[in-house]
């Protein structure tokens, strides 16, 4: 019996591939035979991720994904070079710790541009017949458990991830005829550069509180990457429009 978790010869595009969850997803998927199309703004970090991929027909593009007019050219170029796309992981994300009284419209715009709109633009373009694999595909959008539970000081972040989840359900319904599945992963706190920066802002007492709120401890990028593999592979072929909660028990304490 073939391995249902195999990603052999699948071409998978990953945003936010220069660090954290996006980086580990790309590395893990390449280990399972996928060809990775990496996108990120930071060229140096992008190159570091690229150098850690298993051998394959990988591509990398240093690009600000909120420059929406550039997206289709990148997708077109990648399809011409390695073939049609089977998977998409929107791991690029922006966080912001500000109470409601300090939030400005520009803050919401910045968060939604990266966390939501860019992901939906990629989904729209990749799903075009000339770019998507004829057998269909799988799109994975990185949301957050805070989209369901909220958190003081994370109004903009939580609301953007909530919008991502709602939109993903609508997109999943539209793309079913093309055999494209769309699902979200909802992690709690994962040990990444972003989470370390968050801990620096909130102080030691709040940090202790966050750690205690995760009964199984903080997650690792590997934990999320493994869940991502499941959603991209044939092992999850009967799942679309879903939310995969990956929170170390965080939601049990709320």
Describe this structure in words.
The protein is of the alpha/beta class. The protein has one domain (11-190, 220-245): 3-Layer(aba) Sandwich (Rossmann fold), CATH 3.40.50. The chain has helices spanning 20-31, 43-51, 71-82, 105-126, 146-149, 155-175, 193-202, 204-212, 221-232, and strands spanning 11-15, 35-40, 59-62, 87-90, 137-142, 180-187, 243-246. Strands 3-2-1-4-5-6-7 form a 7-stranded parallel beta sheet, with helices on both faces. Strand 2 (35-40), helix 2 and strand 3 form a beta-alpha-beta unit.
Question: What's the SSE blueprint?
Answer:
Blueprint: E1 11-15, H1 20-31, E2 35-40, H2 43-51, E3 59-62, H3 71-82, E4 87-90, H4 105-126, E5 137-142, H5 146-149, H6 155-175, E6 180-187, H7 193-202, H8 204-212, H9 221-232, E7 243-246
Parallel strand pairs: 1-2, 1-4, 2-3, 4-5, 5-6, 6-7
Helix pairs in contact: 1-9, 4-6
Task: Provide the CATH top-level class.
Answer: Alpha Beta
The shape is globular
Strand order of the largest sheet: 3-2-1-4-5-6-7
- Average pLDDT, rounded to a whole number, is 95
Helix content: 40-55%
- Decide which structural class fits the backbone: alpha/beta
Uncertain spans? none
> How many domains, in number, for the residues?
1
Order of secondary-structure elements: EHEHEHEHEHHEHHHE
In terms of DSSP E residues, the strand content is: 5-15%
CATH homologous superfamily caption: NAD(P)-binding Rossmann-like Domain
What is the CATH fold-level name? Rossmann fold
**Strands, count:** 7
Biggest sheet features: 7 strands, parallel
| CA gyration radius, whole angstroms | 17 Å
Distance between the termini: 42 Å
CATH architecture: 3-Layer(aba) Sandwich
Number of helices: 9
């Amino acid at each position: 019996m073939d391995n249902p978790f195999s990603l052999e010869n699948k071409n998978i595009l990953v945003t936010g591939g220069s660090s954290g969850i996006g980086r580990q997803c790309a590395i893990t998927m390449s280990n399972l035979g996928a060809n990775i199309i990496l996108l990120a703004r930071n060229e140096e970090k992008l190159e570091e991720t690229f150098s850690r991929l298993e051998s394959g027909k990988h591509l990398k593009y240093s690009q600000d994904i909120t420059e929406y007019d550039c997206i289709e050219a990148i997708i077109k170029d990648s399809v011409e070079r390695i073939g049609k796309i089977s998977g998409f992981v929107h791991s690029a994300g922006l966080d912001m710790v500000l109470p409601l009284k300090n939030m400005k419209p520009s803050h919401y715009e910045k968060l939604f541009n990266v966390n939501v709109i860019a992901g939906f633009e990629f989904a729209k373009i990749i799903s075009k017949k000339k770019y998507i694999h004829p057998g269909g595909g799988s799109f994975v959008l990185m949301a957050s458990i805070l989209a369901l539970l909220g958190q003081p000081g994370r109004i903009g972040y939580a609301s953007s991830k909530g919008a991502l989840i709602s939109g993903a359900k609508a997109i999943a319904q539209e793309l079913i005829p093309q055999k494209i599945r769309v699902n979200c992963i909802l992690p709690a706190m994962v040990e990444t550069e972003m989470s370390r920066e968050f801990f620096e802002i909130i102080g030691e007492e709040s940090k202790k509180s966050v750690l205690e709120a995760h009964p199984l401890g903080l997650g690792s990028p590997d934990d999320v990457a493994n869940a991502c593999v499941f959603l991209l592979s044939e092992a999850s072929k009967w799942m679309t429009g879903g939310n995969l909660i990956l929170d170390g028990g965080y939601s049990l304490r709320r």
